[in-house]
Amino acid sequence: MSLATYNFHANFRCIKEGCGAEYPLNEIIYTCEKDGELLEVHHDLDKLRSKSAQEWKDIFDSRLGSIQFPNTSGIWSKKEWVLPNIQDENIVSSGEGNSHLYDTGRLAKELGLAGLYVKQCGISHTGSFKDLGMTVLVSQVKQMISEGKNINAVACASTGDTSAALGSYAAKAGIPSIIFLPAGKVSGAQLIQPVSNGSLVLALDTDFDGCMAIVRKVTEQKGIYLANSMNSLRIEGQKTISIEIAQQMGWEVPDWVVIPGGNLGNVSALGKGFEMMHDLGLIDRLPRICLAQAENASPLYESFKKGYQDFQPMTAKKTLASAIQIGDPVSVKKAVRILKKFQGVVEVASEAELSDAAHRADRYGLYNCPHTGVALAATFKLISAGTIQKNEKVVVISTAHGLKFTEFKVGFHQNQIPGIDSKLVNKIIELPADVDKVLELLEKRI
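Predicted structure:
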């Protein structure tokens, strides 16, 4: 029997406990009309239970490496768990997902872990994990347009990676995109991506939170659709990271997942993926989660220290981890719910700590962006504190390709970052074209 005949179903539902308000996925809506809370995509789990846990494993495993659209995508190969009712002709995909689970090998052994893995979510079309959510959002927009919805453009506020993903996927779909960026706070590699894809790029004299406030007002206008992670369509794509991790570990789960967080959508996304697998019987336990924040933009860490009794937005200070330089995250309530359920913790990394951690791991074959450095630094600190036990398995989420942050890498190895561990700096040595001079140096260094 074709899976299409099972009539799987999903809709928007208010996240507030006891509200229960629901809205169709093709409605242009971002918050609950009753209480203003965020929405989430709710799946009919009873319908999904019409297939057993083993059948779902077999279905997902059978689609790995497929050359048949849309299963060429790591997201759309799990379509029934993402957007079950979308028409294939409206799916906008660039082959995202199916990213490598990098085994750090020697580094794990040195740390005394049973395993330390880095999920390379930045190995994607635009170089970041944002592709995983943007393919879902833009595909749903394309479907709504085909149904006659009044959408003239899609817009987002961004610290860089979201804008690159929106620019690319909107261009592929033939939908205009509008990008709001904080002026002077985005790397050149990130900035030029939406420009190249033809987006209308607006650099505003504010920070990300200021851009977010403006884009929320702009998207109240008819015809402009919001593409930020407060739109839970994005979460549906990002939750497949969890499913991929379980698949790659033989349908087991690690003891810990460490996630760098800014707007906090990715924490709720990965948590949701693990929850769905657990509820449907594909896994028998949940991992613990660590949310890792840059010390200069760590409002949830301050709340965590108080048992989440009070959350106060902050004005984020400049950080090398620019994509998570966010002081007023929109997905904080979703993130707190997941952290509580997953016995989660929040840890921070200073600028020196994130720099050292990123480049320490680079010595084991990686090439880490600063945000992955935040997650690695948090991991090292939790191991030192004994929170992560020596015999446990840990997966660190890498959110972007290191090539998007060349300035960060060059600055480190030119010893331009205050407080860094100079033993990790690897300066380029200039020598005359003289073999004797070369051999003299090699004799000292090798």
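Summary: The mean pLDDT is 95.
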